[in-house]
Amino acid sequence: MLNPRIIRRDFPILAENNIVYLDNAATSQRPIQVIRAIEEFYKTYNANIHRGLYWLSQKASELYEESHRVVAGLINADWREIVFVKNATEAINLAMISWGLKNVGPGDEILVTVMEHHSNILPWYTLAEIRGARIRVVDVDDEGRLDKADLEQKISRRTKLVAITHVSNVTGVVNDVEEITGIAHDHGARILVDAAQSVPHMPVDVKKIGADFICFSGHKMLGPTGIGVLYISEDVIENNEIDPVISGGGAVKQVRISGGRLRVERPRHPWSLEPGTPNIAGAIGLMEAVKYLEKVGLREIMDHERRLTKYFFEKIGEEDLDQYIRIVGPKNPWGRAGIISFTLGEMDPHATAALLDSMGIAVRSGYHCAQPLHERLGFPRGSVRASFYLYNTAWEIDMLVQAIKNIVQKRWSR
Ligand code: ALA
In CATH terms, is domain 33-294 a member of 3.10.20.540? Predict the structure, then answer.
C-alpha cells in the first residue's frame, strides 16, 4: 500500500513549508527527481534539438524523443500519437485549429457537457463561431453525473465531435469515457477526452477508451509547468484529418523554391505539429515525472486518493458537520476521484478559503473555471475545493475537517 509519509520525503516544498497542500487539481508539487532532471539538462547537456550534429544536441534530441515514448507508454499509445504542447488548454486549442477547422462546417454540431471546465468549452465555441457550426450542451443530473439519456437524445449524424472530460475538476465525478466513445463513434463523430484530472491520478489506457483525442498537462502530474500533451489517434492521423496549421522550422523536411514556386515537404507526426524550439527541459522533466508515477503505481495512487475521500466523508459525519457543509455533486465518496468541492452555509467561498489559509490549508475557491456546472448545481457563487494527491495524508484530512469545524463553531455556535 502506498505510504504518503515516505513519498513526502521526495518533495522539498512539503518539508520547507508548514502547509497542508490540497490544491492538486490546480497544480501538483514536484519531487526532487523531476527538479534534478531539469537541473541536469541545463547544467550538463543543454542544446537545441534536431538541429545539431554535436553530441550535446544529439543527447538533448534523444531525450526529447525518449520523453514522447515514455509519455506514450503511460497511456498505452504509440509515440507518434503524442504531440507536446504547453498545457491541456493549448492541446484542446490545437485539436480545434488543426482538426476542427478542417472537419467542421456550417450546420455541423459539437457536443460539450455542463461538466466541462472553460477550456473545453471556449475553443469549441470559437470554432462554432468561425465555421457556422452549433454547440449543443449535454446536461448532468442534480448530483452532477452525466445525463446519458440527454447525450443520446442530442447526438446525431450532424454531430462531428463530442468534447467531454474524463473526471470533473469540480465534483470528481468519473465519466465512463469508454462507453461515450462507443456512442460517439456509432454516430460517426470524433471524441476528445479531457484527461487533465485523470491521467495524473488513475490508469488511463487510450486503446481501451478508443478516443480520438486526449489531452493532459504536465504540471498536474508532478511535471513542470509549460508542457502538456495532445494525443491524436493513429486513425485520425492516417485518415488525413489533421492540417499542420501551426508551422515553422523543425516542422518541415524541405522548403524549396523551384520554377518560382514554393514546394514544402512536411515531416511525419508528431513533428509536423511541433514547430520551433520546443520546451526541451519541460519534456525531460515530464519524462521523469511519468517514471515517478509509474514507480509508485497509478492504481495505488487512485486507491490512496479514494481512501482519503472516503475518510473525509466519514469525518464530516462523525463531527456532525453535515448540516453546515454543502457538497457540490455526489454526497458520498463512491465513483469519484479525490476532488471535493463544498460551501459552508451561506459563507462566501473566498472567505472560507481565506480562513482555511489562515489555518495553513491551501485550497482553491471560486468557480474553478467551471461556472456552468456551479450554476446548474445551485452554487451561483462558486465553491471551495479540496483536491488530493499521492503525498496527502489522513492527518491532513483531519486538519481540514478540524479547520472546517473551527469555522462552523465560530460562526454558528454562539
Ligand atoms: N486548472 C483548473 C483547475 O484548477 C481548471 O481545476
Answer: no
Section 228-249 average pLDDT: 93
Nearest residue (by CA) to ligand 1, atom 4, is 26
Segment among 101-105, 272-276, 359-363 with least mean pLDDT: 272-276
CA-proximal residue: ligand 1, atom 1 (nearest): 26
Cell of 190: 470524433
Return the ligand 1 atom nearest residue 169 CA: 6
> Which residue's alpha carbon is at the smallest distance from atom 3 of ligand 1?
26
**Within 6 Å (CB) of ligand 1, which residues are found?**
25-26, 117, 169, 364, 368-369
pLDDT at 129: 97
Concatenating the DSSP letter of every residue in 15-69 gives HHS--EE-BTTT-----HHHHHHHHHIIIII---SSS--SHHHHHHHHHHHHHHH
Question: Catalytic annotation on 215?
Answer: no
pLDDT in tens, 175-226: 999 999 999 999 999 999 999 999 999 999 999 999 999 999 999 999 999 9
* CA distances from residue 332 to 258, 312, 319, 344 in whole angstroms, order as listed: 67, 10, 16, 17
Q: Which pLDDT score is estimated for 414? A: 56
Query: DSSP letter string over 329-386?
Result: S-SSSTTB-SEEEEEETT--HHHHHHHHHHTTEE-EEE-TT-HHHHHHTT-TT-EEEE
CATH 3.40.640.10 intervals, the chain: 33-294
- Tell me the CATH number of domain 4-22+297-412, given options 3.90.1150.10, 3.40.50.300, 3.40.50.1970, 3.40.50.720: 3.90.1150.10
Question: Measured from the CA of 170, which atom of ligand 1 is nearest?
Answer: 6
The rounded distance, in Å, linking the Cα atoms of 37 and 20 is 26
Mutate to test the pocket of ligand 1, among 169, 173, 215, 220 (most ligand atoms within 8 A of CB): 169
Q: Which residue among 38, 155, 308, 369 is the active-site one?
A: 369
Tell me where in the chain the CATH 3.90.1150.10 domain(s) lie: 4-22+297-412
